[in-house]
Design a protein that fits this description.
Chain A is built from five helices and two strands, in the order βαααααβ. The relative contact order of chain B is 0.08. The chains are: A mainly alpha, B mainly alpha. Chains A and B meet through helix 3 of A and helix 4 and helix 7 of B. Chain B: InterPro entries: DUF3169.
Chain lengths: ~70, ~240
């Protein structure tokens, strides 16, 4: 089961670079890069920090992909 | 066959072929060493000075590349690209430090085994030692550059022990994940290499003059490596 995400899309909407987003939620740029690529599933704390920053629910940013089409 | 399995099989095949080839070539080389040996430090096949020269070249190359990346980092305005350049520079220099140390050790062992005292050999030894020092100096400068540019993740070079652990504690969750993943890969790679080397040294010892020490040494490393892994996993079960 894969975890898809809309981090890149939201970052573009907020006109933020990876570094700016990383600084805003107090992580490294590598962490943002790994999450965007789907290589790392963030902790609940980090997911909640992102949700707060983007003013979106966590389940809108992170989608559990069980084989169904991701929209 | 899945991609992962196929890749693993490829690695096993590469290691086995590499081990067989290395074993065959070195066995041939040792059995013909009388014909291939030359006086002094002249370049001869299967002599330690060739290995030493290769390490020396690799060391000079990595040092130069490391300096180049560091200079590029100073000129780079894009923070993300700069970070990659600096980490490449540090990794290359670490690798270069090890090659320089191994190069110096192989030359020193050759001097002891073959009782070499000539000026060219001494000059080479001095160059090798200077190269080790140049790598160490560059690494300390790189740490200073890193600490200046990334104040949140300062690496305390003043602490001889515990600096790595302290640095590890400063990493965030995904960075730790990278370290764990890389460590597991390194563990597997060392394990597979030790597997191959244990068999190769045993076969080599059996075919030439039987020497148990290299075989036992590798076996001990293999056991320690696996024990450390199982001990750590046992803690969390």
């Amino acid at each position: 089961m894969k975890l898809d995400n809309r981090v890149r899309e939201l970052r573009a909407r907020f006109r933020m670079s990876q570094t700016e987003l990383a600084e805003a939620i107090d992580v490294s740029r590598q962490t943002i890069s790994l999450i965007e690529r789907g290589d790392y599933s963030p902790s609940v704390v980090l997911a909640l920090k992102m949700a707060k920053l983007f003013k979106e629910p966590v389940e809108f940013i992170f989608i559990l992909n069980d084989g169904e089409e991701f929209q | 066959m899945s991609k992962g399995k196929s890749q693993k099989l490829q690695w096993v095949l590469i290691i086995v072929i590499g081990a067989l080839l290395g074993f065959g070539v070195s066995y041939f080389g040792m059995s013909n060493s009388g014909k291939l040996n030359f006086e002094g430090i002249s370049v001869g096949l299967f002599r330690l000075d060739v290995i030493h020269m290769l390490f020396l070249l690799a060391s000079v190359g990595t040092w130069a590349a490391s300096v180049r990346y560091c200079l590029k980092f100073n000129q780079e305005e894009d923070k993300e690209k700069g970070e990659k350049l600096l980490s490449s520079s540090m990794m290359l220099n670490t690798f270069g430090t090890y090659t320089a140390i191994v190069g110096s050790m192989t030359l020193l062992s050759q001097m002891i085994i073959e009782d070499l005292h000539g000026k060219p050999v001494l000059a080479l030894l001095i160059i090798s030692i200077l190269l080790v020092l140049a790598h160490i100096r560059l690494q300390s400068l790189l740490f200073k550059v890193f600490n200046r540019n990334f104040p949140k993740r300062v690496f305390d070079t003043g602490r001889p022990f515990g600096a790595k652990q302290a640095y590890m504690d400063k990493l965030d969750e995904a960075e730790k994940f990278i370290v764990y993943k890389a460590s597991y890969r390194a563990f597997n790679m060392i394990n597979n290499t030790l597997y191959a080397l244990v068999f190769v040294t045993f076969a080599y010892s059996a075919l030439s003059s039987f020497q148990l020490f290299p075989f036992l040494l590798l076996l001990v490393l293999f056991i320690v490596n696996n024990l450390a892994y199982y001990k750590e996993t046992q803690k969390f079960q």
